[in-house]
Amino acid sequence: MREFEAVIEEVKRLKSVTCNLCGKTIDASDWQALNTVHQVIIAFSYPSRFDGERWEFDVCDDCVARITQSFVVPVSVKEIL
After folding, report:
1. pTM of the full structure
2. Residue (of 60, 67, 18, 19) closest to 36 by Cα position
3. Rounded Cα gap, residues 13 and 32, in angstroms
4. 22: which residues sit within 8 A by CB, 6+ positions away?
5. Where are the domains of the chain?
6. How many other CB atoms are found less than 10 A from the CB of residue 31?
7. pLDDT, tens digit, for every residue of 15-29?
8. 24-70: per-residue pLDDT in tens?
């Protein structure tokens, strides 16, 4: 026999996402707009000057386009099916 107890837990729900570059904020309830902001996670290792650090930031589609247009070597684009 299994016995259960009622518990109340705090749950964190995403409220909004802000582009770290331009500051545009997207409300999390707008799921289509939310898909235009992308989380970037970089874990640096030796011998990077940022060795041991982990960076997390969000960038909107407009800023992704602006950043990648400045690349000397173009981004390799592959379609996701």
Report:
1. 0.80
2. 60
3. 17
4. 60, 62, 63
5. 16-69
6. 9
7. 999 999 999 999 999
8. 999 999 999 999 999 999 999 999 999 999 999 999 999 999 999 99
Give the residue carrying structure tokens 């650090």.
53
Burial of 20 (0-12, 13-18, 19+ CB in 10 A): middle
Structure tokens at 50: 């940022």
Contact 72, 31 (CB under 8 A): no
Alpha helices in 1-81 (DSSP H): 31-34, 61-69
Output the pLDDT for position 29: 93
Could you tell me the two tokens for 39?
């989380």
Place of tokens 């030796």: 46
Structure tokens at 77: 């684009």
| Residue 19 near residue 59 (C-beta atoms within 8 A) | yes
